């Protein structure tokens, strides 16, 4: 049994095969401006059982999931937007199309007011992940850093500055950390500080932002884009804002060219580093 999903140009696409006793649910999501909304999650929860099915919308805002037959509550959510719920009956071999759904901004998520916000190092983490011999991931962090966020009258005109003590790298392995501090990698004696500065922020959709800046690492300055999500404001020992962000760095861009290979050319340390940030900042301290 199969059905055809229609393509964006209105023509029929490739046939979709259904498993026995299953059906298809689809939705096309748009933001408040009518643009396709990528990265939103559609969750189907069975009304009378533990079954849960999920799908994430693609760059065209399309989310498609195959689910076992039954009645489901459908929840559509995305950071910075109000949830939308539906109830659907999934029939064997059938396609239930929810059509186009527009998500509206969540007004309860307030942006920070203008002024200086100081990063709280006790509630902020700067972490990274690197691939090791193509099998596992090595997780590390920097334990000493400081920084601030200067929020402008227009949020897009805000600036961010972070300074990291390169010698504070910590991967929970002393010998490895000593090697990472050496000239093969960070060369902390010559380049004791890692510096990031940005004065360009652009809202993508909902709580998602692109923060473009310059990272100076080991004496080399390169442009870096942070994919950030704004988490909102809270009051606890002062007014606080929260955000998470990630970026992908390439060692060679910063002249970190040390390499060792195993059999068949397998490298010990991968060239791509994933950077992950969890940030809390306190206003006016």
TrEMBL record:
Gene3D superfamilies: Carboxypeptidase-like, regulatory domain, Lipid/polyisoprenoid-binding, YceI-like. Residues 116-282 form the Lipid/polyisoprenoid-binding YceI-like domain. Pfam families: CarboxypepD_reg (PF13620), YceI (PF04264). Signal peptide: none annotated. PANTHER family: PROTEIN YCEI (PTHR34406). Belongs to the UPF0312 family. This is YceI family protein. It comes from Amycolatopsis thermalba.
